[in-house]
Design goal:
Blueprint (H helix, E strand, L loop, with lengths): L12 E13 L20 H7 L1 E10 L1 H7 L4 H9 L7 E8 L4 E8 L5 E6 L1 E8 L5 E9 L2 E6 L3 E7 L5 E9 L1
Length: 178
Protein backbone atom coordinates (compact mmCIF):
# COMPACT_ATOMS: atom_id res chain seq x y z
CA UNK A 1 0.00 0.00 0.00
CA UNK A 2 1.53 3.31 -0.98
CA UNK A 3 1.13 6.38 1.18
CA UNK A 4 -1.97 8.34 0.67
CA UNK A 5 -2.92 11.84 1.64
CA UNK A 6 -6.37 12.92 0.70
CA UNK A 7 -7.68 16.36 1.57
CA UNK A 8 -11.33 17.33 1.72
CA UNK A 9 -12.87 20.79 1.83
CA UNK A 10 -12.78 20.67 5.64
CA UNK A 11 -8.98 20.42 5.41
CA UNK A 12 -8.89 16.97 6.97
CA UNK A 13 -5.89 14.90 5.98
CA UNK A 14 -5.57 11.18 6.36
CA UNK A 15 -2.00 10.08 6.85
CA UNK A 16 -1.25 6.42 6.19
CA UNK A 17 2.17 5.00 6.97
CA UNK A 18 3.47 1.45 6.96
CA UNK A 19 6.37 -0.08 8.80
CA UNK A 20 7.36 -3.36 7.13
CA UNK A 21 9.52 -5.91 8.93
CA UNK A 22 11.00 -9.27 8.04
CA UNK A 23 11.23 -12.20 10.43
CA UNK A 24 14.67 -12.61 11.98
CA UNK A 25 13.80 -15.51 14.27
CA UNK A 26 10.66 -17.22 15.48
CA UNK A 27 9.48 -16.87 19.05
CA UNK A 28 10.95 -19.45 21.37
CA UNK A 29 7.74 -20.89 22.79
CA UNK A 30 5.16 -23.53 22.15
CA UNK A 31 2.08 -22.42 20.25
CA UNK A 32 -1.06 -22.58 22.37
CA UNK A 33 -3.44 -25.32 21.29
CA UNK A 34 -6.88 -24.04 20.27
CA UNK A 35 -8.93 -26.30 22.53
CA UNK A 36 -11.95 -24.05 22.75
CA UNK A 37 -11.24 -22.93 26.32
CA UNK A 38 -10.60 -19.36 25.27
CA UNK A 39 -13.11 -16.64 24.53
CA UNK A 40 -14.31 -17.09 20.89
CA UNK A 41 -13.75 -13.36 20.32
CA UNK A 42 -10.05 -13.92 21.05
CA UNK A 43 -9.70 -17.17 19.16
CA UNK A 44 -7.34 -17.23 16.24
CA UNK A 45 -5.72 -20.06 14.38
CA UNK A 46 -2.34 -21.50 15.32
CA UNK A 47 -1.04 -20.42 11.91
CA UNK A 48 -2.03 -16.79 12.54
CA UNK A 49 -0.33 -16.86 15.94
CA UNK A 50 2.77 -18.51 14.51
CA UNK A 51 2.87 -15.90 11.73
CA UNK A 52 3.02 -12.98 14.20
CA UNK A 53 5.31 -14.45 16.85
CA UNK A 54 9.00 -13.72 16.49
CA UNK A 55 11.77 -11.16 16.26
CA UNK A 56 11.18 -8.77 13.35
CA UNK A 57 13.62 -6.31 11.76
CA UNK A 58 12.42 -3.12 10.03
CA UNK A 59 13.31 -3.33 6.33
CA UNK A 60 11.31 -0.44 4.87
CA UNK A 61 8.75 2.21 5.60
CA UNK A 62 6.13 3.53 3.23
CA UNK A 63 4.14 6.73 3.34
CA UNK A 64 4.72 10.32 4.37
CA UNK A 65 6.42 9.69 7.73
CA UNK A 66 7.49 13.33 8.30
CA UNK A 67 3.89 14.53 8.00
CA UNK A 68 2.62 11.59 10.04
CA UNK A 69 5.03 12.37 12.89
CA UNK A 70 4.13 16.06 12.71
CA UNK A 71 0.41 15.18 12.89
CA UNK A 72 1.24 13.13 16.00
CA UNK A 73 2.83 16.28 17.50
CA UNK A 74 6.29 14.71 17.66
CA UNK A 75 8.78 17.51 18.31
CA UNK A 76 11.10 18.82 15.60
CA UNK A 77 14.29 17.29 17.04
CA UNK A 78 12.86 13.76 17.30
CA UNK A 79 11.45 14.06 13.75
CA UNK A 80 14.92 15.07 12.48
CA UNK A 81 16.59 12.14 14.26
CA UNK A 82 13.93 9.75 12.91
CA UNK A 83 14.52 11.10 9.40
CA UNK A 84 18.31 10.67 9.71
CA UNK A 85 17.91 6.99 10.64
CA UNK A 86 15.39 6.47 7.82
CA UNK A 87 12.52 6.07 10.30
CA UNK A 88 13.98 2.88 11.78
CA UNK A 89 14.94 0.97 8.63
CA UNK A 90 17.88 -1.21 9.60
CA UNK A 91 17.95 0.31 13.10
CA UNK A 92 14.78 -1.00 14.74
CA UNK A 93 13.55 -4.46 15.58
CA UNK A 94 10.43 -5.67 17.31
CA UNK A 95 9.79 -8.86 19.19
CA UNK A 96 6.14 -9.97 19.20
CA UNK A 97 4.69 -12.78 21.25
CA UNK A 98 1.08 -13.71 21.90
CA UNK A 99 0.62 -14.80 25.52
CA UNK A 100 -2.15 -15.88 27.90
CA UNK A 101 -3.98 -18.07 25.39
CA UNK A 102 -3.58 -15.43 22.67
CA UNK A 103 -5.41 -12.81 24.79
CA UNK A 104 -2.40 -10.50 25.12
CA UNK A 105 0.36 -9.24 22.85
CA UNK A 106 3.85 -8.63 24.18
CA UNK A 107 5.69 -6.03 22.09
CA UNK A 108 9.35 -5.39 22.73
CA UNK A 109 10.82 -2.64 20.54
CA UNK A 110 14.59 -2.33 20.25
CA UNK A 111 16.32 0.55 18.52
CA UNK A 112 19.90 1.67 18.10
CA UNK A 113 18.78 5.27 18.63
CA UNK A 114 15.60 5.35 20.72
CA UNK A 115 15.01 3.82 24.18
CA UNK A 116 14.21 0.12 24.46
CA UNK A 117 10.45 -0.30 25.06
CA UNK A 118 8.47 -3.31 26.28
CA UNK A 119 4.67 -3.30 26.61
CA UNK A 120 1.91 -5.86 27.10
CA UNK A 121 -1.51 -5.20 25.54
CA UNK A 122 -4.77 -7.05 26.01
CA UNK A 123 -6.55 -8.02 22.79
CA UNK A 124 -10.08 -8.19 24.18
CA UNK A 125 -11.19 -4.58 23.72
CA UNK A 126 -10.29 -3.40 27.22
CA UNK A 127 -8.34 -0.14 27.58
CA UNK A 128 -4.54 -0.40 27.93
CA UNK A 129 -2.56 2.55 29.35
CA UNK A 130 0.45 3.41 27.14
CA UNK A 131 2.95 6.21 26.59
CA UNK A 132 2.82 8.00 23.25
CA UNK A 133 5.91 8.87 21.24
CA UNK A 134 5.78 12.29 22.90
CA UNK A 135 5.88 10.69 26.37
CA UNK A 136 2.27 11.59 27.16
CA UNK A 137 -0.19 9.07 28.59
CA UNK A 138 -2.57 7.49 26.10
CA UNK A 139 -5.10 4.67 26.04
CA UNK A 140 -4.97 1.85 23.49
CA UNK A 141 -7.88 -0.51 22.78
CA UNK A 142 -6.91 -3.60 20.75
CA UNK A 143 -8.84 -6.57 19.35
CA UNK A 144 -8.40 -9.47 16.93
CA UNK A 145 -10.19 -9.10 13.59
CA UNK A 146 -9.76 -12.04 11.22
CA UNK A 147 -6.10 -12.61 12.07
CA UNK A 148 -5.31 -8.88 12.17
CA UNK A 149 -4.62 -7.02 15.40
CA UNK A 150 -6.64 -3.80 15.27
CA UNK A 151 -5.94 -1.03 17.76
CA UNK A 152 -7.24 2.47 18.35
CA UNK A 153 -5.24 4.95 20.39
CA UNK A 154 -6.88 7.81 22.28
CA UNK A 155 -4.94 10.41 20.24
CA UNK A 156 -6.66 9.35 17.01
CA UNK A 157 -4.15 6.82 15.68
CA UNK A 158 -5.59 3.62 14.20
CA UNK A 159 -3.20 0.65 13.94
CA UNK A 160 -3.47 -2.67 12.08
CA UNK A 161 -0.79 -5.34 12.62
CA UNK A 162 -0.71 -8.27 10.22
CA UNK A 163 1.50 -10.53 8.16
CA UNK A 164 1.14 -9.89 4.43
CA UNK A 165 1.28 -12.38 1.55
CA UNK A 166 5.08 -11.93 1.34
CA UNK A 167 5.41 -13.07 4.99
CA UNK A 168 6.31 -9.56 6.14
CA UNK A 169 5.00 -8.04 9.35
CA UNK A 170 3.15 -4.81 8.58
CA UNK A 171 2.26 -2.10 11.08
CA UNK A 172 -0.27 0.07 9.27
CA UNK A 173 -0.87 3.34 11.10
CA UNK A 174 -3.40 5.95 10.10
CA UNK A 175 -4.14 9.30 11.67
CA UNK A 176 -6.76 11.84 10.75
CA UNK A 177 -5.63 15.38 11.35
CA UNK A 178 -7.96 18.36 11.46
Amino acid sequence: IAHSCCCTFAMRCLFVVLTVCTLVSEAKRAIVDDTGDEDPALATSKEQVRALDGDWSCVRVEGDFPSFLKAMRVNWFVRKVASRIKFGVGHTSQYLQLVDRNAKLLVERKSAVFPHKKQLFTLDGTPNPIKGVDGMDRTLVATWDNGVIVADVSDGIHVRIFVNADHELVWECTKSDI
